[in-house]
Write a structure and sequence with these properties.
This is Reverse transcriptase zinc-binding domain-containing protein. This protein is mainly alpha-helical. It has helices spanning 52-59, 65-75, 82-86, 106-112, 114-125, 127-132, 140-145, 154-180, 186-207, 209-216; strands at 5-10, 16-21, 27-30, 39-40, 43-44.
Amino acid sequence: DFCVATGALVNRDKSELFLSPHYSEPLTVSFPVRRNNIKLLGVTFQADGGGRTSWEGALRHCLTNKQKDIAWMTAHGCLPTRVFMYRRHLALTERCPHGCTDSEHNYHLFWECTVARRVWGLVVSSVSHNRLLPMSSLTAESVLYGPRGGLKTMELQRQWGIINTVRQVLWETRNIKVYQKTSVDLVTLRRRIQNLLQDGVLVDFRKNKDLAREKWGVDHWKELII
């Protein structure tokens, strides 16, 4: 995997993808969107890759900048998975780095992979998260693209925030496996998810304590434990 990009960022209007291979200088790749039926949280994005106003309206509630980038690249099919990189001659294989026999595309990475299934099972089986993220709300479509009707309620905003936190950890875990050849155990993954969620709850409490209590069902950010 000497050719696999170590990361990717998108510009502000989401029209260019910046790939950073560790063996050379960063590459700037134009990424025009040729379809006009891309939807995330019920929002249809412009065919030229724009739609910044719609994007901010859909995601302003609950995601960090890193989570927004992962969500956008997932929706537009440009997250630098092995399938994406292999088709551009930037990876030697499209096989899942966790040892699965399938190709690593978005659906596999966030839903079908054995690591993803174990992590989702861990989160949903948690006592606190069984209330905050019901099993009935977890489908492949909701994990990849969010609730079909958008984020109209506080409950849906909370669920979308938790889903994106887990996706961030899955992406980080995948990168550790690719670049450091190291597998991350479930205890460490659980701690990472909990820390990221607590950071988000703390931000909500600083903005409005009453709304944060209603949204998360806790009186203090440290009470959110998985």
